[in-house]
Each structure stands twice: as C-alpha cells, then as structure tokens.
Amino acid sequence: ISVILKKVANFEGIQLPIDLANRIGEKSQRNLRRALLMFQTCTTQKVPLTKDQQITEPDWEIYLRDTARMIGEQQTPQR
Description:
Blueprint lengths: L1 H11 L5 H10 L4 H14 L13 H14 L7
Helix pairs in contact: 1-2, 2-3
C-alpha cells in the first residue's frame, strides 16, 4: 500500500514521507481505496506533508460508525 501511495504522490508532484505512507496503510486496514482517500484528505489539510501529520478518517466513515453506534444503543422512551 505504501509503495502505491508513494507512486501516486510522485505522479501528483507531492512529497510523501514513507513514515506517513506506512501509517496511512496501517490505518486504512490495508484497503487501497481507503488509503487513497486518506492520502487525499491529508493533502487537502496540509502541504507539505510531514511524517507526524495527523491522519483523519473520511467523514462518511465517521458518520457510518456513529449511526451504527446509535442503532446499537438501547432504545428508550425519549428516543
């Protein structure tokens, strides 16, 4: 995953530290599509990229996780 991310970054003219590429690969759970989305999110937040840059998850993943959590919670009369 990190090798592919480096190739994409080079193609786009962006310097991607290998440490950041490795962290993106791990955080994406070895899912290339998710890793590319995370890389894209990183480039919109801060350029030049740094090896200790925060990796944020795509908004849709956060929304899905929160929705699933709400569904899994016990329903109360107030809800």
